[in-house]
Amino acid sequence: xxxxxxxxxxxxxxxxEAIAGAGEAVRAxxxxxxxxxxxTNNTTRAREPLAAQLRGLGVDVDAEEISxxxxxxxxLLAGRRVLALTMADVRADLATGVELVEQxxxxxxxxxxxxxxxxxxxxxYENLNRAFVSLGEGASLVCLHKNRWxxxxxxxxxxxxxxxxxxxxxxxxxxxxVGKPSRTYFEAALAELGASAAEAVMVGDxxxxxVGGAQAAGLRAxxxxxxxxxxxxxxxxxxxxxxxxxxxxDVPALVRERGW
Length: 260
Ligand SMILES: [Mg+2]
Known about the structure:
Helices cover 36% and strands 20% of the residues. It is an alpha/beta fold. The protein folds into two domains: 3-41 and 182-258, Rossmann fold (3-Layer(aba) Sandwich); 70-177, HAD superfamily/HAD-like (Rossmann fold, 3-Layer(aba) Sandwich), CATH 3.40.50.
């Protein structure tokens, strides 16, 4: 039996619309005895509402089964003063470990962008400049992820990687990435399952963050042709996925066929 890590956005749903067969696939993987963990770079929701959203889409999941980047950031930055450029909804997860401040920060944490109205106010000149000043005063730069764009029902939207890269450029620093593709994020998810990388399979729609990141950490990785999947990204990828399927609905059969 395998330890299976499932990405959420683009794999189980896109902009709140379920991928056909997602609920049945998750149920089948559980029934066949695989251990599941949901590993997301989502930066717009804390894990309780994330779990509720998935259940609403017919995917049976418990909040405790979800790894989120704000929770990982809270562990990484525990006890430190943090200037957080994140969406309001994830501050609940973040606040479990850090002190959120506007000035005198020891770390600047950049979260995600979203099509919702709040984000427009997160990445204002004023907030980005406050982050820049903090970095100049010695704060470290940490980001939940460094994704360039993400897939929504309205098409590709600019993601927060652009703001992270801008701060790196302006302040002459390099950001530490909390979420995928960082090795520590995959390792933390495996630790939750008590699994080794060798017995694990990551399923995602992002050939860099999901597939490349997981394979670099020693996991197998399956790419789904939904969400942000693009043929040209697959063709240009440094690493070849261990499997490519049309959608999550095909994952149980692939896992069976490969004997994972
Ligand atoms: Mg995804």
